[in-house]
Amino acid sequence: MKEEIKSTYKSDDTEEWLDRVWTRPIGYAWALLFRRLRVHPNTVTVLSMIIGAASAFFFAHGSYRTEGWSGLGYNLVAILLLTWANFYDSADGQLARMTGQKTRLGRILDGAASEVWFIPIYLGLVYRFYVHHAMEFRWLGIADTPTNALLATAVLFGVVLYSGFGCHSQQCGLADYYRQIHLFFLKGEAGSELDNSAQQRRIYDETPWKGNLLWKLFLKSYINYTAGQEARTPRFQRMMAELRRRYGATERIPRDFRERFRAGSLPLMKWTNILTFNTRAIVLYVVCLLDLPWLYFVFEIVVMGALCAYMRRRHEALCERLVP
Fold this sequence. Notes:
Elements: H1 2-6, H2 17-36, H3 41-59, H4 64-99, H5 104-131, H6 134-140, H7 146-187, H8 197-206, H9 213-231, H10 234-247, H11 255-265, H12 269-274, H13 278-289, H14 294-322
Helix pairs in contact: 2-4, 3-4, 3-5, 4-13, 5-7, 7-11, 7-14, 8-9, 10-14, 11-14, 13-14
């Protein structure tokens, strides 16, 4: 059974310990069920989006400290729903690899899943602070008036916008990009999903609007996503341009270069895993159970921001070192 589960990994290099012992085995069980029921991987992804987004309603409630046993129950349901959504997020990729049903739409949907989860969750946490802020106001010596509550919530909302779009999206996007780069040098183009904005732009331009409105919108979003990844990795882009100049095509990159890149990239994989889901989710669960939801955004901006900057600096230095 272990080998069967491992066969659904993207690679041993990119798997996190918690995913190996928890997420992947349970995701594999779901994938087997979905395969038996002939459910398409993209359908599983959409289900994960719905379930993850639904957790926002329960995260919007206070904890045991502010709402008693019902608050604790709401928070536990929220944790279970987001965990369930993550199992499906694992199962969709495992199912795609088991059945060979990999699609470009699936890649785009998979990348969008965490956004669909976390946008309503973040908004739910802002509402939660608006309702349950008495302790924070006491700490800061602020009178608990309706006007002050609105002002403080508006400030938090501004912080959340920066945390979500300026930090969460950027951090997860860059971490995913580095994983795909690693898979590219480890397995080649067939074993990775290393897309580029120029390629996506060509597909977009060649796709007619008639009958493809939703697909065109998906592609437009994905062009912006990949362009953002490229803009944040200038030394990697220069390295790839030089490799194409030297060897004509990426499949001709020598094995010894691929192995040297893999050796330098492998230590960074633990940071890509920290920056994606598990660590974020654990911190989110803890701060919500403590009824300190704003603390999650401090963590995302300060701690995760510092880790992302460190990972980016290391990766860019690796590219500069291998192809000066």
